[in-house]
């Protein structure tokens, strides 16, 4: 019994581990991918290297000629420099025997000008590369000698589906002159760490959202992105006071409207900061889904009868704070100010209107 207690004392239980099981690290999770999932993950990662690449395309499959992920520095139609990421999803670290056919394809298809020579040719594998392959890739001259020596055994009948590719004549001269220093590999740790900075990492690997930064405070002057919802607020105050307000400074003589206006701007900027946070940490479109949930929860209130536009905006934003967001990935960092601020975002896009046209015509 003492031994069992000792073992149990080392076990660390969390709510997540009880409900969902132990968290699987990205390094371990990618080892469970299918070859197709692995290629798609590498494409995601390459697309995040925006300072390096203009266009990324996944070609993996029959007829790819040894090009899985093609990452171009410019328009591919202009024969710009490009890098190739050759994806190998095996249950072991890559060994020299795993790469000969790929190097044979690289030589042959660039020789017959099916595609231009890549700037760099990287192998990417979830298990990394073994010592023997590392030593081989570190010696380009040795790659060339060994490729030539094993060509008939490893490459000749495995490059083109219906033809044997003989290593002779001009083609042999091409291989003998080939610069194999372009061939290297990418560390898995480097790939995962860069992918961690994308807005797809949490959706793919979980682990929870990072800490949300403090919301930006509204600048002293109205910005161009605020024009429509600000105009709607001024119309709402004017509707209640039976007057017209041309700019926010005119609210200074009415303390209640001024305070409400300042709070509304704070809430708008709070929601804007949440939008940025969502776009940085979650796939595109997730914030739009949150806006839709808020809209669905308030639109009936906004379209109901109210004595004036000011009462309509207050009732609508108050209703927003009562909405329970249970399933959205942002729920853990969502605040009431965000919910109210989303109403002003919707007003900014004319999806919510504080003084409907028929009310103006009364």
Descriptive terms for the model:
362 residues; alpha/beta; five-stranded mixed sheet; disordered N terminus
Question: Explain this structure to me?
Answer:
Helix 5 (100-111) packs across helix 7 (140-155), helix 11 (227-241) packs across helix 15 and helix 14 (309-321) packs across helix 15. The chain has two domains: 24-205, no CATH class; 224-360, no CATH class. Helices cover 49% and strands 6% of the residues. The protein has helices at 2-9, 15-20, 26-29, 35-47, 100-111, 131-137, 140-155, 169-177, 188-195, 201-205, 227-241, 255-281, 286-302, 309-321, 336-348, 357-360, and strands at residues 55-58, 69-72, 82-87, 120-124, 183-185. A five-stranded mixed beta sheet has the order 1-2-3-4-5, with helices on one face. It has 362 residues and is of the alpha/beta class. It has 16 helices and five strands.
The first-to-last residue Cα distance is: 83 Å
- Largest β-sheet summary: 5 strands, mixed
Count of folded domains: 2
Overall pLDDT score: 91
Q: Please report the number of helical segments.
A: 16
Order of helices and strands: HHHHEEEHEHHHEHHHHHHHH
Helix content: 40-55%
Number of distinct beta strands:
5
Low-confidence stretches: 1-20
In short:
Helices cover about 50% and strands about 5% of the residues. The chain is built from 16 helices and five strands. It is elongated and about 90 Å long.
């Amino acid at each position: 019994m003492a031994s069992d207690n000792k073992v149990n004392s080392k076990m660390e239980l969390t709510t997540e581990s009880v409900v969902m099981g132990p968290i699987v690290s990205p390094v371990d999770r990618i080892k469970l991918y299918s070859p197709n999932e692995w290629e798609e993950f590498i494409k995601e990662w390459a697309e995040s290297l925006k300072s390096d690449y203009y266009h990324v395309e996944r070609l993996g499959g029959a007829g790819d000629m040894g090009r899985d992920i093609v990452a171009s520095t410019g328009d591919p139609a202009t024969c710009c420099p490009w890098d190739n990421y050759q994806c190998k999803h095996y249950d072991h670290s890559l060994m020299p025997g795993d790469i000969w056919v790929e190097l044979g394809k690289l030589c042959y298809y660039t020789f017959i000008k099916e595609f231009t020579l890549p700037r760099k040719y990287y192998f990417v594998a979830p298990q990394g590369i073994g010592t023997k392959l590392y030593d081989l890739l570190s010696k380009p001259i040795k790659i060339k000698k060994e490729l030539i020596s094993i060509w008939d055994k490893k490459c000749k009948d495995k490059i083109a589906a219906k033809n044997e590719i003989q290593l002779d004549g001009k083609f042999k001269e091409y291989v003998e002159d080939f610069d194999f220093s372009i061939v290297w590999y990418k560390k898995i740790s480097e790939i995962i760490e860069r992918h961690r900075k994308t807005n797809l990492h949490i959706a793919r690997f979980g682990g929870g959202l990072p800490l949300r930064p403090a919301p930006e405070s509204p600048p002293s002057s109205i910005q161009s992105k605020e024009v429509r919802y600000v105009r709607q607020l001024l119309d709402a105050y004017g509707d209640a006071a039976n007057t017209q307000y041309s700019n926010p400074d005119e609210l200074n003589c009415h303390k209640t409207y001024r305070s409400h206006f300042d709070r509304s701007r704070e809430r708008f900027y709070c929601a804007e900061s949440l939008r940025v946070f969502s776009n940085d940490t979650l796939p595109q479109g997730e914030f739009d889904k949150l806006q839709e949930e808020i809209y669905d929860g308030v639109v009936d209130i906004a379209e109901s009868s109210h004595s004036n536009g000011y009462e309509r905006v207050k009732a609508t934003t108050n209703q927003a704070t009562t909405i329970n967001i249970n399933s959205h990935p942002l729920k853990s960092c969502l605040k009431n100010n965000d919910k109210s601020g989303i109403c002003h975002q919707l007003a900014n896009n004319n999806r919510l209107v504080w003084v409907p046209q028929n009310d103006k015509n009364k």
